[in-house]
Design brief:
The chain is about 75% helix and about 0% strand. It starts with a helix and ends with a helix. It is elongated and about 75 Å long. It has helices at about 1-15, 20-25, 30-50, 50-65, 70-80, 85-100, 105-115, 120-135, 140-150, 155-165, 170-179. The chain has about 180 residues and is an all-alpha fold. It is built from eleven helices and no strands.
Length: about 180
Amino acid sequence: DYSQSLEEKGQRFREKWPDVNYENLLELDRPLIDVLEDDIKKGTELLMQGDPAKAAEIFMQIHRMDPLSFEARYGLGVSLSHLGQVEEALMLFNGILDRDPDNAAVLNQCGMIAANLNDLEGAGMLFTQAVEKDPQYKDARRNLTETLLQSGQIESAILQLVELLKMDPKDTDTLLRLA
């Protein structure tokens, strides 16, 4: 009987490794993918609430269980970036870009790190790449606009603002920036 075999082996397993949840390990209670999805949501919520340290802990746990999870690596990278651990964040982001060089969100995050390090030229290149990969990505276009303004490239920045208004003519942030 399969159930009896699981119970007997579970008993021996619990004796050897009492700290490991046998039911979770075999996904008897709940499939691992569901657990990971819930944890990704928790980590994302913590980031949105301004708690990157707790978010980083959750994303690190997910990353340990599923090292190929884009969401775990991306969330951990964003968390580490917010914590000032930019080298570690860039390592994660570069790892994602190795597998997915067209990922506009990761290019945008790398651009934000470069901008925070006052590398406006590098930031501008990364934001430009992000916009080229996803022309509808408003955050990347906004970041590119700010970088262009800081670099004194006013005409190019205005062109980006116009593109943002084409996407959403009622975008108050863009309208205020143009004023």
